[in-house]
Automatic annotation (TrEMBL):
The lineage of its organism: Eukaryota, Metazoa, Spiralia, Lophotrochozoa, Mollusca. Residues 403-417 have a biased composition (Low complexity). Residues 132-291 form the Integrase catalytic domain. It comes from Mytilus edulis. Residues 391-432 are annotated as: Disordered. It comes from the Eukaryota. SUPFAM superfamilies: Ribonuclease H-like (SSF53098). This is Integrase catalytic domain-containing protein. InterPro entries: Integrase_cat-core, Integrase_H2C2, Retrovirus_Pol_polyprotein, RNaseH-like_sf, RNaseH_sf.
Amino acid sequence: MDSTPVTAQQIKAWTRKDPILGQITNYVLKGWPNYRDNDEMKPYFSRKTELSVFDSCLLWGNRVVIPNPGRDIILQELHEGHQGISRMKVLARGYVWWPNMDAEIEQTVRACHKCQVNRHAPPEAPMHPWEWPSNPWSRIHIDYAGPLYGKMFLVCVDAHSKYLDVHVVNSATSANTIEKLRTMFAIHGLPESIVSDNGTPFASQEFQDFVQRNGIKHIRSSPYQPSTNGLAERAVQTFKEGMKKVTEGSIETRMAKFLFTYRLTPHATTAIAPAEMLMGRRPRSLLDLTYPNINSRVQQKQQRQKQSHDKTAQVRNFNVGDSVYILSHNREAKWITGTLIKRTGPVSFVIELNDGRTVKRHQNQIRHKYDQYSDNKLPDISEIPDIPIPVVSDNQADVETPSGSSDTSDNSKSVVKPTVETPRLTRTRKPPNRWHNVLYGVECWSGLLE
């Protein structure tokens, strides 16, 4: 120590000259009053039963009460060796005391330059997590992993979906970084911001010009504080561990296998696969083969619906140029005429109306239009020849003569010839079989009577 140490003789002299300690010493020797004169005596009044005087020095228990002139010297002695606050307090409590001693010890340590430049880091600040972006690929975190297998790997992770993308490069330069970022931007678009550390590839002027030209905000983490870019740091660690476990194939093959599985696995934070969150769909994998084929199921359903519908359906064919009736939606006429000019689908057509307008109609809204005379005309009535057709009157019938009678007999009945009338076309009348016995009953009954 540069200063002279404090002795009991000095403490005795300082105590006599100190107005507060001199009065307290008098109270200890002669008795305490019922009230104190000022607030400076409050610490002594609270300890009055423990204070004593020995050889004109005031004691609190076995600790010497140090007057004001010697306190700075005692603090220097306690801080010899630049001990910390706790060790200084423990050492002081075995020898000395004065009001606010602990606070002055703390202030002495905090004011020591050598102690401050060599002290431990302060406790970590409360965590301030990154705000979760609401849209995919709006903020990405990038970092380099390696050297690994003689290569460097640019690791990029989307803050929204946790989608991981990795590109292999020979060296971590700004040019290689920009080239790989262009490839990713061509697929996913430009992000709003990029978060990186202060590495040379990201801190160069070339990289700064690149992000500015593309309207991207570049956020760099604090130096030697990797937790600021913790998303990329964790992605680098995950990628390294995954590459060590995949041992078959080239570097590109191993990297593709790892990324394929990682992107399809639901993330612990989002509980959704990164690829599904980024692309809005779940990419197909071998595990999809375990599901029944939904396409065949849908086709079977559609086929059954078609069969049920077509039971009452009727196939009607329409060709371009056909004259048709189409269903009208006005109140003047339910069906209006037009000409079919174009087919737009299996059952959809474009029809030109008589007024020049064109409308689109479904086959269910179209009917064929037939002209009064078609190409296959019916024959004219004058071309039909007159054909005599026998007509049997209601009171006459042809009756055959009984067997064995002579055709020349005078008594036999003559056959009445039917008259032929040709004023109009008539059909030949053929009585049904049930009337056979009535018309020809003579012959039938004669046979039965024999």
